[in-house]
Amino acid sequence: MDKAITTALLIIAGVVCTIFIFNAVYPMVNRSSQAMISMTDTMDDRMKSRISIVHVASAADRQTSYVWVKNVGSTRIYNIEKCDIFFGQEGNFARIPYEGDAGETYPRWSYDIENGTEWVNNVTVKFTITYDIDPGSGTYYVKVVIPNGIEASDFFSVS
Questions:
Q1: Among 22, 68, 84, 138, which has the minimal tally of Cβ within 10 Å of its Cβ?
Q2: Do residues 119 and 144 touch, judged by C-beta distance below 8 A?
Q3: Do 44 and 115 fall into the same domain?
């Protein structure tokens, strides 16, 4: 009879330990799988996003430059105003703020969607970078980074 009670108590203790271990491990496995799903979604978005700088030009007064960027990926690019634009003479460029963030300061940039209403595949956006003074002639660098980190860059000359 003593052996039966001892065996029963050991079985109960084993079941309780198993429940404790399950309750400790299952939430970690669940959180880990959610993190993997989130990372997979992020990687999928990055893999489907691509942009290409089509053309860069400067106005005659050199206070305004235009950068045409085409969405060559398969997904829509949201929050265009959250893009980062780096612009300036070669070796002396800086991040240019969006006009909504720049207030009345210069330089700043704005955008127009050229051939559509949303920045989807095969649609081009014209970024307009405006200075308050002539920044000078020379070789310029432009880099456009969309909100998910995909980027395109180019050098061009202004005379």
A1: 22
A2: no
A3: no
